[in-house]
Amino acid sequence: MAERDGREDGRDREEHAPLLSVRDLRTTFATEDGIVTAVDGVSFSIEKGTTVGLVGESGSGKSVTSLSIMKLIPSPPGKVEAKEILFDGKDLSRLKEREMRRIRGNEIAMVFQEPMTSLNPVFKIGDQIMEAIILHQKVNKREARERAIELLRLVGIPSPEKRVDEYPHQLSGGMRQRVVIAMALSCSPKLLIADEPTTALDVTIQAQILDLLRRLQEELGMAILLITHDLGVVAETCRRVMVMYAGKIVEEGPVVPLFQEPAHPYTRGLLDSIPKLNEDRPRLTSIPGVVPHPARMPKGCRFHPRCPLARPICEEEEPPLIDIDEERTAACWVHTGFERLEQEAGEVSAGASR
Questions:
Q1: What is the DSSP letter of 233?
Q2: Which region, left, alpha or beta, applies to residue 211 given φ > 0 means left and ψ of -120 to 50 means alpha?
């Protein structure tokens, strides 16, 4: 009986385990300035069938995080370390390259922000989609071609029987991005990593691509990690969001409460910089300064040189990532009670001097 209960407990944990669980991910690069850290101690999880957003300014480490998970960081100069990168029960951080190739493009797929960097200009788009299908699905060319046409139809490309024999330069930017999505979906992945999938597209095509991703997720049941700097895109598509700054996640939580009451000053700055339809402002609000260079990170909280709430402790000690409530975390000294302790210490000091 106890043995059976143990097996049932194990199955229950497996069923409720997240699809992807990343713990203490660190990615460094050897440069002329020495070893620089692009991703520093990042931890998060993604549940099956959900969409999670990863947002932040350019240079925050978002794309490096995704490439590190996929083990696509060239070594040297890069080096990826993690306590674990658990995907569907397998620790990716301990897999050899041969084993990763079976997962990459098959169970985990990636959509890059510029489709022309993902498509080979001298090969027909059908051949490029068929390549992954033949590699992972073990089907013949005729079956792979039929599957390629089916995928082009699935992502909304008209006349797929004709388009399958065209070259990338014969398609518009929106069509090329749809082809890249079709390639990513060719093996029905459990996780799709979409790195700025709508950045190079106009607003109308952006909306179409986002609708496409939502529809495909519902049909296929896959999880999506959506990497973007566009908070509007996150609001439309994601259930949870992680805010990244200078290689660290500084806030995480469900989209609605995080947008309504941001807990970290950086998140608030990002949201304040978005123009609102019901406001008449002479100019947009911006966050002063820039994301620090990885080789020249400030001491203490990495955001303190740009932060309107910075205190002396922020310049000296890095804040921990703490629970704001049951579903949200943030890395800011304001939420640790230190401000109250600092005030009490000041009062004690003033009393002693009297």
A1: H
A2: alpha
